[in-house]
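hey all, quick one before standup. I had two proteins in the batch that finished overnight and I want to keep them in one place so we stop losing track of which output belongs to which input. First protein below, input sequence then structure tokens straight from the run.
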Amino acid sequence: MSTGLSERARESLPETVAKAAAEQPRAAAALGAALSSGPSHAYLFRGPHGSGKRAVARAFSAELLAAGADDPEGARRRALMNPSPHPDLVWLRPAGAQHMIDDVREQVIRASVYRPFEGRRRVFVIEAAEAMRDESQNSLLKTLEEPPAFAHLILLSSEPEALLETIASRCQSVEFQPLTAAAIESRLMGSSNTDAGCAIEPGGVAAAARLAAGDLERGTFLISERGRQMREQVRACMAAAVDGDLSRSPWKAILSGAEAVGEDAEAEAREVLQADADAAGRRSAKEVTDGARRAGRRRRTDVLDLGLALCAAWLRDVASVCAGAEEVVFNSDSLDELRRQAGEVRLSRVADAVALVAETRRGLDLNVSEELALETLFFRLEALLAAPMSCES
């Protein structure tokens, strides 16, 4: 069954929304109805990370602001920019692990009572809404219950169960599904062809699309230079474990790669927070530093978890080759190495190895030593996989 928009649905939607929601027909139908019959005051875009909520929210916001504007095309164009210079579009994203309470109060709750600078509407988007503390959510409740007629709130959440029920129940839900591997591959092929820094072989794009697990942002990372390095680091680690040669501590490359990505995220967050502090004077130097460090740590942890997820995917692929099911392999650009390793291990032990990786991923949530956790994992994997064996279960 196709997950794309029908021609009829596409024709009834503004081009901006139709393009952004091309792989989300249910969301497109809901938003198309809203634009034709009159939008609600609050929406909750709920669905997995990387399913396109942010792009659809930007397109929907642009259409809300274009309606009734003196220059609809100009309003739409400015609203679609990232960051947007449109004075009636407020886009709030957490710079660290959580939204700052003062940011929610100042930029959304208090700002929502002021009439639009242009046109008929103001739009407030809260990205990663689950990152609001309970205090912030409770403060937002009155705005959701008694919003000004011109204000529209859009909450984006990959973990809607973390929102207070009183918040979720006052928003119209718009559901997003994980993207298919084919949809992600199509998007990634476009970016790899237009971005010189992402130029990779089609086989690598196809593999990244499968490994993305429905998350376009993960797929985009996997075809980036750092993402390709991480895939190579995982291949090296798994080869070393199967070959019984961990003398070079290959897991340290995964740790250093995650550290580098975290440093990039910290620098980016610091720039955003400092610009905000300079413009509005809302943050002290300590708050800027602490917020940037939290953002860096969160990104580092996310990438390290991705590295372990890639290890589990690699082991799954070895098991698939062992079972004679090469057509379902995720790392489709590494079949030769997968076949070699499949000839060295026993299928039942690969299943045990996947369980070890899952156990390590859970353990990282307990603030254990990451280096010790990975060292322990790969020596345990070596003990399971290194002995030469046939591919019989």
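OK second protein, same deal, sequence then tokens:
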Amino acid sequence: MRFSTVTLALILLVVPAAAEAQQAQSLPRLAHVVPAPPGCKISTVSEAFLQGLHDRGYVDGVTITVDRRCYSTPDQLPSIFQDVIARRVNVIVAAGNIAAEAAKRATSTIPIVMVHTDPVGTGLVASLARPGGNVTGVSGTPPELAGKRLEILKQLNPRLSRVTLLFEPEVDPRARDEIETASRALRLTLQTSAIRTLEDLNRAFDSVARNHPDAVVVHAGAGVITVYRQRIIDWAKEQRLPLMFNLSQTVEEGALVSYGADNHDVYRRLVSGYVDKILKGADPAGLPVEQPTRFTLLLNLKTAKTIRLAIPQSLLQSADRLVE
């Protein structure tokens, strides 16, 4: 059979394209579901996770397909998971309590790697040692560390007397109990605001303006607070309020201080490690849930200058990292 020049050219174009499409379909597919404001800007934690995958030989579009999905409200999660399941993903990485629980409701067969505050208490796993289902991953910062955040704020400002706590109701209630216990021990007046929606957050801003606290402590679990954390950070700087977060990445984003698990390390080392093991054939039911062992104190010196707060030398020396 003889081919014309045009026909041969078309064959040369179509065959590689078909081969690439077939290769893409044969690559393992990962769904990475994260909280983010509209626009789905990639965070430094997501970058750390992708770096961890890269360190293990997974390159998006070459050795794996990473399907990144963002949600700004919990009601978006069912349709997101319905879609990624229809695409026959091999692994789901669910960042935070809300996403992990929604993923578990959506599928009992596709492996899920979660980061969750209390996976046993919420029934995501049977136990940390033997999860027993399709979910494994990393548990959050131990709740007993939550009270330490108030102690750090007291070190920052010995005159501290009034503190506002912003929290997501989905977060482990034991952490809130620890904060309330610490506030009593430190003789602080604690005002709490549960943040479920953006409207709740705006009302909390108004409440702070009326009550004039000395500082704000935030306990987030990948819900509305996490999605709109940059708005909280910018607002606190405008109000010249010391802002303490439980999320380490927020200090790079402008928060004054954070204390908790190093989320960059958690996603780069632990979460990517679970994905690697599962793609190599490990059963999530038998992969123990890991608990963070590295807890860091981060301080933003530029923010301290902006809000006109002098950080004591003792805290500067004990900080794991100073952001300038």
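Flagging for whoever picks this up: Residues 69 and 153 are 35 Å apart (CA to CA). Residues 5-12, 15-22 have pLDDT under 50 and may be disordered.
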